[in-house]
Amino acid sequence: MLVHHDRVPGIYDEPDFYEAACAYRDVPAEVDALLGWYRRYGGAGDPGSGVPRSVLELAAGPAEHARELARRGIDATALDLSAAMCTRARQAARAAGVRLSVVHGDMRDFAIPCEFDLAITMLNSLCHLLTLDDMLAHLASVARHLADGGLYIAELAHPADFLTERRTNSEWTSEVDGGTVTVSWGGRADVIDPVTQVTREHVSVTHRGPDGAARTVTDVMPNRFWTATELAAAIRLAGGFSVAARYGDFGAGVPVDAPEAWRMILVLRRTLVQWVQRGRHVGSVQRRVTLAAYRERRAACEAVEARDAPEARKAPGTGSTPDRTRENSPR
Fold this sequence. Notes:
The model is unreliable at about 1-10, about 275-295 and about 310-330 (pLDDT under 50). The longest helix is centred in the C-terminal third of the chain and has 18 residues, at about 290-310. The protein has helices at about 15-20, 25-40, 65-70, 85-95, 130-145, 160-165, 230-240, 290-310, and strands spanning about 55-60, 75-80, 100-105, 115-120, 145-155, 170-175, 180-185, 200-210, 215-225, 240-245, 265-270, 275-280, 280-285. Helix 2 (about 25-40) crosses helix 3 (about 65-70) and helix 5 packs across helix 7. It is of the alpha/beta class. The chain has a single domain (about 10-160, about 225-315), classed as 3-Layer(aba) Sandwich (Rossmann fold).
């Protein structure tokens, strides 16, 4: 049974700290990879263009990838369980002058009156799905919102991080807005439950400003580690997707089983016949979407966004840092 709630761990109620902690990411380069995979494997979008018309970022946080996709002219929507993160995403999009729809919702069970060519989940956010039921519900919800031939690309931690030798660093420091952010995110001291594969990760983020003033946010978060075989079985059990490819990095087509692979990135294609889970029942729905229907749903989505978006409060921004290297990459 799914337990729905609006509570998220404390670090996600601190959008500035979270965004600063993840500032090592090279978001434009990662979006280049996402669009490259869409051109290669996607079947929706504008015919012959190889470009998705629309994208949904799930567990989006401050929605950095959705904002970059919006900057490139793609109709972007971001969904997150944290109201604070949703506010931050709206503010950042407004400040950047990009058009972004933001939805406050649970990635396990959501309903948006739109259909998307591409869905993405970044930064190992699927680790917050702690059970098989959670994962199956999530996959069914995503499948319901994708056009036939659309792609779902999910980035997870590489299984080597918890089964063999860790391939990412659990501690790193970045420069942000003339100051520094020092992060400790999990590590060998956080023991994985051998039955549930859930660990309680200890997180500490310290931001020190140019004036030397420092503030630290700490948290303990339950995270589930998923193996490649578990995900393959869940995808088959949920239905609605076929595995188009698996990669171990955002560059140069590194396979997930390569020694240098540091992530597990799944490229899933939505199949023509979709098996969707509705409550406790599973039924078969075959759906074909025309451009006119897409535009009608897009207009409905915009109406919902305009109705539900709260008045954003001004929040301090965080800057960017030099390009990411694997050695200072978290999780």
